Amino acid sequence: MNLAEVKGRLYELTDSFFQGAIVIWSEQINTKPPLPYITLKCGGVSRTSFPVEDGKGRRVYQSKTTWEVNLFTRGQPITVREGVTGNYANTAVSDLTEFTNFLDSEEIVGVIAGDDMDILLMPPVRDLTELQNDSNYRYRAMAEFTVSFVQEAEGPYGIGGMPLIPNHSGGGTKEMVKAETETIETVEIKEGGYENEQ
Fold this sequence. Notes:
The protein is of the alpha+beta class and 198 residues long. The protein is 21% helix and 39% strand.
């Protein structure tokens, strides 16, 4: 998997849990959606220096990134009398913690493992609520995760496993993908010693 594929999977998992909220990536140009909504952000990618090789031109790199999930919510309505909501209680941390429980569940861990991924919470789930307009609170919670995944590289140019050639930024060519890794199949060894010339 590459980072774009990992991000797609993380989005699907978030959207499957928060079906009553809007889920967006924080780097996209968007108008602020109505509450509740979730913003997602991935950091840079680090990978092992030395890949695992299969001897046939395929390399596997253990990789990881950080994943930030922000939940913005109105919270739980507090009824002051029948049909009248007086205020809202802050449920942001509680609601986001339930999402971390979902990610740690047996069912979802099995799904994630099937994609050769692992998602690990970096505690705590933070309360980032702030006062807006001197009268209203913006209920917000944030959790960070370490996401481990496997990147594959194939062929002499290392791009045989790319899902799209060229990529969205114009990288890679079909000729590079079709290139074959040259291997030495036979070696001829001649008997005899090294003769010293005098």
